[in-house]
């Protein structure tokens, strides 16, 4: 990309090979080597596990670690590691790096064949013949012994990406899952048996499947998933957006005709918000989505283009929820730390998958979770609607398009008096609204889909507002009723003073009363009054 005479390098969005990224010279590497150094310095327990959502740079991190231990100093010129007393510069260690996505298959037999092939390949790297009379796990054990024996340091480095991939493949097939996890357990257990010969071990994945019996064979690993020291190891921070990535944000701002501060704000609202440690308030952006946005100059949902959330959406439906219900979920840290394949705990699944993040830590130590940003909100909402309706959304799509146009051109009151009524009238027949809670749900769903800045269940001194919508024209505080009247809804909002938390803001505050009439299957005219 050219800006004047200066060529602007873009952060990588798909390249996970560190040497190729550095040698190619076209991509921008945001330096994380100081943190990797802290991980890799010699200690008795330099054998780690870290989980992060997909497309968060885990493979690039492992490739960087590989180059570090191989002592490829020429790749690190100008980076933090180059000036540090790193052992690899004087005494490289052989590195064996592989991804468990290479041990995948649609059946148990295919999985076994793929895992056998993966181990045979590792044996080949040590000129060791694979013994077909022995088990896969025993051959992996033989490989680890042989690799350490051949090493000039007597030790090796093992880097394993997507450790959970073979098991995740069969989460909906419990009989096969039990057989696969038994084999995977026996395979990983050899890492513990040979830990004395392993200088450094890093395993990464999306989920921490602690109850799979997988981790019972790996209880020597140090889990750095929620370690505050490494909360920013993967993903981009605000400081990095205003530092090494500033020129990229400036180009984005220029393309969109806005200034740097506005560009930064909208980029953060779309891709930031991931908090990975209760002990650190540091937040990061999804690096791949951010990179795509900076390269294209467009804010859009890049997350869903890299994979589908079918399992997530199905679990939301099974929990009788919609995406708008996911704000403010309260859990203990232990609940997030444990993910049992048989039950797939709802909160842990969404958190570890990147659909929820830590929003607040209570004094009790409990964590409040919420959707991290606009991209994930859109991904969840659109995925939920399309899964729910399949082919029945065409009429509602028309109302959504009209509402988006009117919200931009005519403001909130037109949206409420015209579009909202039309949207409920056009609601697909299979959407049944049986109570006030469900009426509010679908209102929030509609507003999220059209891009309105809205949140549900906002606390005030005397209770909770059902929803609050922020717009350039003001703050709109909603109260819902079911089978009652809009007047009653408005009266309750005013009596409980739900709008008080926003009265000291520069924008005017309005109360909105909404009533859903179950006989008409629609809403009465909403009432709007100043607070």
Give the total of beta strands.
18
Q: Ranges with pLDDT <50 over ≥5 residues? A: 1-5
Report the span from N to C terminus. Answer: 50 Å
Give the proportion of residues in helices.
25-40%
How would the global form be characterised?
elongated
Q: How would you describe this structure to a colleague?
A:
- The protein has 531 residues and is an alpha/beta fold.
- It has four domains: 31-225, Rossmann fold (3-Layer(aba) Sandwich), CATH 3.40.50; 238-304, no CATH class; 306-370, no CATH class; 393-530, Trna Endonuclease, Chain: A, domain 1, CATH 3.40.1350.
- The protein is 40% helix and 16% strand.
- It is built from 19 helices and 18 strands.
- Strands 13, 14, 15, 16, 17 and 18 form a six-stranded mixed β-sheet that branches. Strands 6-7-8-5-9 form a five-stranded parallel β-sheet, sandwiched between helices.
- Helix 4 runs parallel beside helix 5 (136-150), helix 5 packs parallel to helix 7 (174-193) and helix 12 packs across helix 15 (374-389).
- The chain is elongated and about 80 Å long.
- The two termini are 50 Å apart.
- The model is unreliable at 1-5 (pLDDT under 50).
């Amino acid at each position: 990309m050219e800006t004047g005479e200066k060529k602007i390098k873009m952060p990588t969005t798909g390249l996970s090979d560190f040497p190729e990224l550095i040698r190619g010279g076209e991509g921008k590497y945001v330096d994380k080597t100081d943190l990797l150094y802290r991980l890799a310095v010699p200690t008795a327990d330099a054998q780690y596990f870290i989980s992060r959502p997909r497309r968060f740079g885990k493979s690039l991190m492992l490739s960087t670690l590989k180059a570090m231990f191989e002592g490829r100093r020429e790749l690190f010129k100008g980076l933090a590691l180059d000036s540090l007393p790193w052992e690899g510069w004087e005494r490289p260690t052989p590195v064996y790096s592989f991804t468990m996505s290479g041990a995948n298959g649609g059946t148990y037999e295919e999985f076994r064949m793929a895992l056998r092939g993966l181990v045979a390949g590792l044996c080949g790297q040590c000129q060791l013949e694979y013994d077909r009379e022995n088990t896969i796990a025993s051959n992996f054990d033989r490989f680890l012994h042989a690799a350490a024996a051949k090493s000039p340091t007597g030790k090796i480095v093992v880097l394993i990406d997507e450790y959970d991939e073979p098991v995740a493949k069969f989460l909906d097939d419990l009989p096969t899952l039990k057989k696969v996890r038994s084999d995977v357990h026996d395979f990983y257990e050899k890492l513990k048996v040979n830990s004395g010969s392993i200088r450094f071990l890093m395993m990464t994945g999306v989920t921490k499947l602690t109850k799979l019996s997988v981790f019972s064979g790996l209880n020597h690993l140090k889990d750095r998933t929620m370690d505050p020291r490494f909360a920013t190891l993967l993903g981009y921070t605000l400081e990095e957006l205003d530092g090494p990535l500033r020129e990229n944000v400036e180009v984005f701002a220029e393309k969109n005709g806005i200034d740097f501060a506005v560009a930064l704000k909208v980029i953060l609202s779309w891709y930031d918000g991931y908090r990975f440690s209760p002990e650190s308030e540091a937040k990061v952006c999804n690096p791949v989505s951010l990179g795509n946005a900076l390269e294209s100059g467009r804010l859009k949902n890049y997350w869903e283009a890299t994979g589908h959330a079918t399992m997530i959406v199905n679990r939301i439906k099974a929990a009788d929820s919609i995406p708008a219900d996911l704000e403010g979920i309260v859990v203990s840290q232990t609940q997030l730390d444990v993910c049992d394949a048989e039950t797939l705990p709802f909160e842990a699944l969404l958190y570890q998958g990147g659909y929820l993040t830590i929003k607040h830590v209570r004094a009790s130590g409990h964590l409040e979770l919420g959707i991290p940003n606009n991209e994930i909100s859109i991904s969840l909402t659109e995925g939920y609607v399309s899964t729910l309706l399949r082919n029945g959304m065409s009429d509602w799509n028309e109302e959504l398009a009209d509402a988006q146009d009117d919200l931009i051109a005519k403001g909130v009151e037109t949206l409420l008096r015209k579009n909202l009524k039309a949207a409920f009238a056009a609601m697909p027949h299979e959407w049944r609204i049986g109570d006030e809670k469900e009426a509010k749900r679908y209102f929030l769903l509609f507003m999220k889909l059209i891009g309105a800045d809205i949140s549900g269940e906002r606390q005030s001194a005397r209770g909770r507002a059902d929803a609050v919508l922020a717009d350039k024209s003001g703050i709109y505080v909603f109260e819902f009723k079911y089978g009652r009247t809009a007047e009653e809804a408005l009266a309750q909002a005013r009596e409980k003073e739900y709008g008080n938390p926003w009265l000291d803001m520069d924008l005017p505050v309005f109360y909105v009363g909404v009533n859903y009439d179950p006989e008409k299957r629609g809403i009465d005219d909403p009432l709007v009054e100043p607070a």
